[in-house]
Structures are given as C-alpha cells and as structure tokens.
Amino acid sequence: MTAEQLKGARFFTAEAPVYVGDSLFTSERKFHPHRHDFHEFFIVRSGSLVHHHNGSDTTIHAGTIWFILPDDTHCFSATGEDALLTNVAFTKALADSAAVYLGIKDLEAAVRTRAHTTLSPHGFGHFIERIGVLAQAKADVKRMLGRSLIADVIAMLSLPRTEIVDPPPAWLSAACNAMQKEENFPRGLERFIELAGKSQEHVTRSMHDHYGQTPTEFINTIRLDRAAYRMRASTDDILSIAYSVGFNNSSHFIALFKKRYGVTPSAYRRQSARIFAQKG
Fold first, then answer.
1. Closest C-alpha to 12, from 153, 150, 100, 139
2. Which residue in 13, 57, 58, 111 is a FRET match for 74, CA 20 to 30 A apart?
3. How many of the other CB atoms lie within 10 Å of CB of 118?
4. Alpha helices, DSSP H, located in 106-237
5. What per-residue confidence (pLDDT) applies to 193?
6. pLDDT tens digits for 216-233?
7. Whether residue 277 has pLDDT greater than 50
C-alpha cells in the first residue's frame, strides 16, 4: 500500500507553527501507512499498540515518546486494548530552531539513532501537563512554548546514553504512581515508604538505581509541579498552596521552586498570568 503524505499546510499557520492533537486507537480502527512533510513527536498517554516505523515493529506503552522525521513512513496496529496518543506536529523551521538552541547541527542524525524513549512515571505526568499548556496557548505564545518542549524532546533523545538498567520493580512503580495522588504526596517520605512496603534504605537504594534521585527529591518534584499548576490555575495565596502540597517552611519552598523553575513563585505566577491572559 502506498503511504499517504500528510501536508503541514493543513495544520500550521505563520503565527502558530505547531499543532497538538489527540488520537484514540481501538481494535476497530483501520490503520494506514503515512508520511509527513513536517516533523512530529507523539506520546502514548494510555494503553498500548504496535508502532510500524520504517519497516520495524515495536510494541509501545504509556509514557513512550517517539520522534518522527519528515518522510519517515509509519502507522499503528492494535494490541487488543485501546490506546490514546497525543501528537505534537511542527514545522521544519521550528525543529531547526530548537536544535540550534541545543547546539545540534544535524537534527536528523541526532534523533535517527535513537528515535524514542520512555518517561519515568513522574516525568510522564509533568510532560503531559506541559503539552496541555501548549495546546491551550494562543498562536503567538505557541511558538515559544513549542520550541521549549521540542528542545526538551530532542535533548532526551540525543544526549549520550548511559548504561541501560533493569526496569523498576512493580512495587516501586506502583508506589511512585500512587504518590502522584493528592492524598499521598503532601504526606511526604513516611507515606512513600508506607506505600512501597519496604525499608527506607531499600527504597532509597532502589530510587537511586532506577530513577537517579532520592525519595525526597522525587516527592519534592511532585509537590513543586503541583504547586506551579495551582499557581497558574487559581488565585489562592502562594504560601497556602505551598502548605497544601506539603511544604512547611516557606523559605525552603521558595528556594526549591526557584531552583526548579528559575524564578521565584511570585514571579512565576506573574509570568503565567501574562501568558494565559493572551488566550482571551
């Protein structure tokens, strides 16, 4: 079957060279090979499916990100369960701009060797949130947010790979997923250890081996991202937000927030307000 070529002119405008869309794949849906005249990446949000990409077949699951170059041929087939994907399509010019920002001269060579990766449970949640912000932004803001997101994906795929470790054990993945919930992350390390059902020493060692961070760093990242979301989505007092996500020391919260986002919480809220005010 000849692969259909999708044209970027269907999706982009001069003001918004990036497009975000969701696709639901079921066993009843027909799958046809296609190519693009633009760049894209997709992330599997739930379920699993088989990705047919340039003659190779790979079963992919929630958290998988895959970068598609112009003229790659690909399509999907079902595995028996529904799957939800989010596609982020963008012009060659925007892709090249993100690559230049990273100091990459040959984008195709950088991502051709390693076109896909899988996010950790927490990284997945944060990434989905960023896509949501991009999808809702007005055209003139989409360019800035899109380039930032694209650059991060390129960096994930092009940075030198360290030695591949075994996937995290089921008990650790379950505990990390459970800690994303509102009833758990404010309760901190003690709750994480309780959910894991292991000793603190065992949990600490396993987090280092599989996620490269301590349990406290993992928990604080969840708290900070949730605080940032609430600052964007509500007018609640910043310190009240900090306490609600589990920080009992305002100075510590501000220092950690600035380290992660590059600005103080109050400056972050002002910047976010300017971005979202443009959405009208």
1. 139
2. 13
3. 16
4. 107-112, 121-136, 139-158, 170-178, 188-196, 200-211, 215-233
5. 97
6. 988 998 898 788 888 877
7. no
